[in-house]
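Example record

One chain of 174 residues, shown exactly as stored in the release files.
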Amino acid sequence: QVVNQVKEALKNKKRELMTTEGKAQFHAAMLLLGQTAVNYLDMSDSPEKCSGNLNNVINQLEDVAGNFSEYPEYIEQLDEKRDELQTAFEQKQQQLSEQRNTKVTALVDSAERMLKSIEHKLGTFNNVNDINGYMAADRMIGSVRERVKDLLALEQVGQAEGIQSQLKTIHEEA
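Predicted structure tokens for this chain:
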């Protein structure tokens, strides 16, 4: 009888200590996960990287969930953290997409203004040598080509090819 009481008391004490230690470990794991998420958000400089980094963080969250699967009281906290992470990364991805779109629009608008100016300037030349000399040496032509490179760097191949095509057409029609 006494032995059974002692065994039961030891089991209860062991369970209590494991619960306390489990809470501390869970808290530490969640803090580390939060810091990791902040770092991944900071490293996300494109919508694509943002998506990849979200996957990395979610995988780490799943590892934490697996480590604490025997503690059902943590399920809700893990679900909340998952939602919080997805929201944060989706917002960052949206922000990066909007920034990219704004930059693309500005580059295209700038290139189109320069193309109009180039077309007007080419209309003032009387011979092919002057036209070719202008196309080879003018800084505005270089600027248009820089816009094309910038668009290609932003993976806007269609926009870049359209501007290159317009430049070629303007040159040929002059």
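Notes: The radius of gyration is 31 Å.
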